[in-house]
């Protein structure tokens, strides 16, 4: 999609920075962004890489017909699919321009409590009419959207809540603290409360000045550091001098290094009279910094009282002062609230997931011409492996949406994959995988007969067949490669690297299953950066009957640990047996169940005997329906040496079975301390300890299961991912 992001100025302020961060994620998802400021910014210009950056006119205090004209010309020139307005001026001018360029949906991003800015009277009437030409309003929080609907009597069906996405940046806190104190000339023992925001009436700096005037008397080591600029900047600096607070309150002006400054602080303070959903509290949380804030607007949506910081009711200065003292004197409390705040951001304000929600919203507003595509899916083999299962499930959803799909495997296999139509095979010999002219010709004949609009190659051998068939037999259909793992793990020599480079250069687009997989292929083959994005693997919610669950041969009196995966090197069954031996020595009721087959199966059976684990390690063979096993297991384990984004973990999360996994590939994108047990790669002792903890029945594990289930249902069901694949297909047509 081509998206026009309209901001007031390309400046480092909340709405504009949010629009830039969102746009960055949308670019990563493969969309084209035109980042436009209504007015030219004279300094500290916000520049968005990989996007068109445009400013229209000099700032004006009166309504500008020239600006409307320039907007109309711009829209006609770039032809965006959707326009997002970020700020009231952008709305005013874009709605005016829309009379001359109709038909393009306009989305308004509401970041505040709009009733505070639009009082009853002519202004309210004007805005109510402006919003009649807006297709949708997306608000930063529940309070903000309720306020908007009430203020303008706007249809709630045309509103949504999509929270801010807050990028995480890891910073060494001790170094940041030393640097900040050195810059301000502070003592090592001084404590820093930081405020970041525009110097304007609604930010209520005087409230903080009153508090720090009192603190100065008994707690002179507690300092207030104010970051930002604005119309009241000079006036408030004079106020500090007047109160003789120069050694208590410090001004840093405009800064770009906000994460580094926050990392150097002890706490964050916000005294606003008006707020939407203050992203700066979340930015503090990314550095494990707790916050104290006045109870206004949507503050409660980003700050949990007594858990991630403190909320002060009724602008109670004594309470505010008391909480500042608590956080500066009680390190254990401060650290606990800071850790909780960080967990909140990771769980609810993930920028990638939120960008996906905007992507879906844009798609729904646009509609799009997807009446009937012809899609050829190529899989490696009819086998029970993640790539093949997902390709089958995705294809079912494509069929449900009215598209024509065929699946061909390169090699034959005996797995019954979950594709609801016939699944074909080229029946090629695996020994011919590097040169198979007859196989390439056979694929070319299929392409000419089926006439697909798109070919999706799922795994490395399928890409070889698709590209060599296309080159030798000269058919012209775009080829998408589904990158399901880490290229660097499988490329063992220079020939292999050059061959894959040759293939990828002739691939039209690359869809990686995780950020880790994308980063790996982009690093290994830098030329792929401009034609790759991430669409995660998804899963199907299967209803499991009590009869199916009862048929699972697990002893209810035992602790049943489950692993699902082929017996191959990367699945690391040998390492798992070492882990399980430690677990079993401490919990004799533990039983390890292995589902799968593969070339190393005989070796693993031998190792089971050598470790004297006969009877407590059970091999069940391959299964085309492992879901009852997953649901009935106490713990699912994944000790893999490499993974893209393992669907089996998502299935465990869906069926509310605890997971323990090594931190490899994209595993950490779904398994965190809130959704499972993530273990440093290769640490056998920690893996065993994590399994033992997961086997316990306690409140912590119950919370993990709740968070894991919510994550999967919101972001990893195939029915929600299919449109993202369609966007990628259409982009190439």
TrEMBL record:
Q: Locate the Glycosyltransferase subfamily 4-like N-terminal domain: which residues?
A: 13-169, 385-542
Keyword terms of this UniProt record: Glycosyltransferase, Transferase
What the entry lists under Gene3D superfamilies is as follows: Glycogen Phosphorylase B
Supply the InterPro entries for this chain: Glyco_trans_1, Glyco_trans_4-like_N
Where would I find the Glycosyl transferase family domain in this sequence?
Answer: 177-342, 547-710
Q: What Pfam families does the record tag this protein with?
A: Glyco_transf_4, Glycos_transf_1
One Gene Ontology term of the molecular function aspect: glycosyltransferase activity
Q: What class of enzyme is it?
A: transferase
Origin: domain of life? Bacteria
Q: What is its EC number?
A: 2.4.-.-
PANTHER family recorded: GLYCOSYLTRANSFERASE (PTHR12526:SF630)
Q: What is this protein called?
A: Glycosyltransferase
Q: Which organism is it from?
A: Autumnicola edwardsiae
Q: What is the lineage of its organism?
A: Bacteria, Pseudomonadati, Bacteroidota, Flavobacteriia, Flavobacteriales
């Amino acid at each position: 999609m081509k998206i026009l992001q309209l901001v007031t100025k390309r400046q480092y302020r909340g709405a504009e920075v949010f629009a830039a961060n969102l746009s960055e994620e949308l670019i990563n998802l493969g969309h084209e962004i035109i980042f436009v400021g209504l007015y030219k910014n004279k300094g500290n210009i916000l520049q968005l890489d990989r996007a068109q950056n445009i400013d229209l006119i000099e700032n004006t205090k009166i309504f500008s017909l020239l600006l409307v004209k320039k907007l109309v010309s711009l829209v006609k020139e770039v032809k965006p699919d959707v326009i997002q307005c970020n700020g009231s001026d952008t709305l005013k001018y874009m709605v005016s321009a829309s009379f001359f360029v109709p038909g393009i949906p306009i989305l308004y991003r509401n970041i505040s409590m709009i009733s505070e800015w639009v009082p009853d009277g002519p202004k309210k009437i004007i805005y109510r009419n402006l919003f009649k030409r807006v297709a949708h309003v997306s608000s930063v929080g529940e309070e903000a959207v309720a306020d908007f609907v009430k203020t303008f009597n706007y249809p709630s069906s045309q509103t949504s809540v999509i929270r801010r996405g807050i990028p995480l940046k890891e910073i060494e806190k001790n170094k940041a603290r030393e640097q900040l104190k050195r810059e301000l000339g502070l003592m090592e023992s001084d404590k820093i409360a930081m405020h970041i925001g525009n110097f304007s009436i609604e930010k209520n700096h005087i409230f903080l000045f009153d508090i720090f005037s009192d603190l100065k008397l008994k707690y002179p080591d507690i300092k207030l550091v104010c970051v930002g600029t604005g119309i009241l900047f000079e006036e408030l600096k004079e106020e500090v001098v007047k109160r003789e607070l120069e050694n208590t309150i410090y001004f840093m002006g405009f800064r770009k290094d906000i994460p580094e400054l926050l990392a150097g602080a002890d706490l964050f303070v916000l005294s606003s009279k008006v707020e939407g959903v203050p992203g700066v509290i979340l930015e503090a949380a990314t550095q494990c910094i707790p916050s104290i804030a006045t109870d206004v607007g949507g503050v409660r949506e980003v700050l949990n009282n007594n858990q991630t910081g403190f909320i002060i009711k009724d602008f109670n200065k004594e309470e505010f002062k008391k909480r500042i003292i608590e956080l500066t004197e009680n390190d254990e409390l401060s650290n606990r609230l800071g850790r909780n705040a960080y967990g909140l951001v990771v769980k609810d304000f993930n920028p990638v997931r939120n960008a996906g929600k905007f992507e879906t919203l844009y798609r729904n507003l646009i509609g799009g011409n997807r009446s009937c595509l012809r899609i050829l899916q190529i899989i490696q083999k009819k086998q029970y492996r993640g790539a093949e299962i997902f390709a089958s499930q995705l294809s079912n959803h494509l069929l449900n949406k009215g598209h024509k799909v065929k699946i061909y495997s390169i090699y034959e296999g005996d797995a019954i994959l979950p594709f609801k139509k016939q699944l074909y095979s080229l029946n090629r010999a695996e020994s011919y995988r590097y040169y198979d002219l007859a196989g390439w010709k056979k694929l070319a004949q299929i392409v000419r007969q089926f006439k697909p609009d798109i070919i999706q190659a799922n795994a490395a051998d399928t890409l070889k067949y698709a590209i060599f068939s296309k080159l030798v037999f000269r058919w012209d259909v775009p080829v998408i490669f589904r990158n399901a793992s880490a290229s660097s793990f499988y490329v063992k020599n220079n020939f292999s690297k050059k061959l894959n480079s040759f293939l990828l250069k002739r691939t039209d687009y690359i869809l990686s299953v995780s950020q880790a997989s994308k980063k790996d292929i982009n690093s290994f083959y830098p030329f792929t950066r401009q034609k790759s994005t991430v669409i995660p693997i998804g899963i199907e919610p299967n209803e499991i009957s009590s009869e199916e669950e009862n048929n699972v041969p697990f002893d209810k009196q035992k602790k049943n640990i489950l692993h699902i995966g082929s017996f191959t090197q990367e699945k690391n069954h040998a390492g798992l047996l070492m882990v399980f031996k430690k677990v079993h020595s401490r919990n004799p009721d533990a039983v390890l169940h292995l589902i799968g087959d593969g070339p190393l199966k005989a070796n693993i059976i031998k190792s089971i005997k050598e470790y004297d684990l006969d009877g407590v390690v059970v091999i069940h063979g391959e299964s085309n329906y492992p879901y009852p096993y997953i649901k009935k297991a106490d713990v699912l384990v994944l000790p893999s040496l490499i993974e893209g984004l393992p669907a089996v973990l998502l299935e465990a999360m869906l069926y509310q079975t605890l997971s323990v996994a090594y931190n490899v590939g994209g595993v950490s994108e779904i398994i965190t301390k809130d959704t499972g047990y993530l273990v440093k790669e290769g640490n056998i002792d920690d893996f065993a300890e994590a399994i033992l903890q997961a086997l316990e029945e306690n409140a912590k594990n119950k919370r993990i299961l709740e968070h894991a289930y919510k994550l999967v249902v919101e972001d990893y069901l195939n029915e929600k991912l299919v449109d993202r694949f369609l966007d990628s297909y259409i982009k190439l047509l």
